[in-house]
Design goal:
351 residues, alpha+beta, Rossmann fold, D-amino Acid Aminotransferase, Chain A, domain 1, Dna Ligase, domain 1, 3 domains, seven-stranded mixed β-sheet, 16 strands, binds adenosine-5'-triphosphate, binds magnesium ion
Length: 351
């Protein structure tokens, strides 16, 4: 069989640029080299696309740009190629498939998926709609409400309303009790999220969140355990067992997620069978409802008092580092990282 060419996109303009570089290395290490030629294409924080020439093991956030050339994926569907700009001219490489190992803004929200649709090149993971709906917390809420799956009670706030922030606060206080979570609808990785315990903190939280997005979501606080479930496949996806997050901070914010060694994840924690089944069913239903493809990780709470399952969010390009929940949940099911990456690529060819 002829080897196929795979472009792995990494980095990107989002706040999760660094995590993406680590995810991409894990993914590339696990791509079957007998089947695929790998072309690692990084996107700088400024949005410059470049092909990395070094060894995959040597790829680091700070050094990769130093060993790279400008390179772009042509949007021309008759091209289906990567155009590399070398000092002595242009080289075109046929592209069979793309693995967007990107997280957050422009990587997980349908933007890059739109480019790849235009280019007519198959790619791993969700399409434009599933990506953008899942990235936008408010839209996800609307879709999941229709499924009758429980979520935290929420109040949407639009930028225009912020002209009268006192009225916004009054509106929230009429519907929710403190503490509340204040979130930008579309930001990614906990940026701009705060927990407000009183009116003063709510004012501050609103002012901060609106810097990140023009649409906000204020939520009741769910007291309970935090668990995540991996989804893999296209129309009849498989679901994993759950992994639990034990956050070192008051909530699982950016710092506790990536910088705080006190935070822990437990694969296959003790959870009642019926609860586990409910979570897996909900994860599959939500994946279908947003029209998911390939992979996603659905996050839930198990409410302490009631034991009820409460949906939090769905991530269409979950972290793929060696300590990320998504690959660990499949390892728990007996699937190696190599096998997982291979399946993801196969699913992309067969969307
Ligand atoms: N309604 C809520 N009740 C209790 N805790 C919450 C609630 N919403 C969020 N949290 C806490 O805040 C953390 C971050 O919130 P959330 O997962 O919604 O956003 P995010 O982390 O930005 O998204 P992503 O996981 O895509 O990076 C959660 O992991 C959880 O610890
Ligand atoms: Mg989250």
């Amino acid at each position: 069989m002829n080897k196929r060419n795979i472009v792995v996109l990494f980095g990107g303009q989002s706040s999760e640029h660094e995590i993406s570089c680590i995810s991409a290395v894990t993914i590339m290490k696990n791509i079957n080299k007998d089947k695929y030629n790998i072309y690692p294409v990084g996107i700088t924080k400024e949005g410059n696309w470049r092909i990395y020439h070094g060894k995959i093991e040597d790829l680091t956030v700070d050094s990769w740009v130093g060993n790279s050339d400008n390179a772009i994926i042509s949007p021309d569907a008759t091209d289906k190629s990567l155009i590399i700009f070398k000092e002595d001219g242009i080289v075109k490489v046929d592209v069979d498939i793309v693995f967007p190992a990107l997280h957050g803004l422009y990587g997980e929200d349908g933007s890059v998926q739109g480019l790849l649709e235009l280019a007519g090149i198959p790619y791993v993971g969700c399409g434009i709609l599933a990506s953008s709906v899942s990235m936008d917390k408010l839209f996800t809420k609307v879709i999941v409400d229709r499924l009758g799956i429980r979520q935290a009670k929420y109040v949407p706030v639009y930028k225009k309303e912020m002209d009268d922030i006192k009225e916004v606060v009054a509106k929230i206080e009429r519907q929710l009790e403190y503490p509340v979570f204040v979130k930008p609808s579309n930001a990614g990785s906990s940026k701009g999220i705060t927990k407000a315990h009183n009116r003063g903190e709510l004012f501050d939280g609103l002012e901060l969140a609106i810097k990140h997005d023009s649409k906000l979501l204020i939520e009741e606080t769910i007291v309970g355990r935090e668990v995540e479930c991996a989804v893999l496949g296209n129309y009849h996806p498989r679901t994993s067992n759950v992994g639990e997050i034990i956050s070192a901070a008051e909530f699982y914010d950016y710092d506790s997620k990536y910088n705080d060694i006190g935070s822990k994840t437990i694969i296959n924690p003790d959870v009642p069978k019926i609860t586990l089944k409910k979570i897996r069913d909900c994860a599959e239903q939500i994946f279908r409802a947003v029209d998911g493809r390939g992979l996603a990780r659905a996050d839930f709470f198990i409410e302490e008092e009631s034991g009820e399952v409460v949906f939090n969010e769905i991530n269409t390009l979950p972290g793929f580092t060696s300590i990320s929940m998504y690959p660990m949940l499949w390892e728990d099911k007996g699937m190696s990282n190599e096998e997982l990456v291979d399946r993801l690529i196969e699913f992309a060819f067969n969307k």
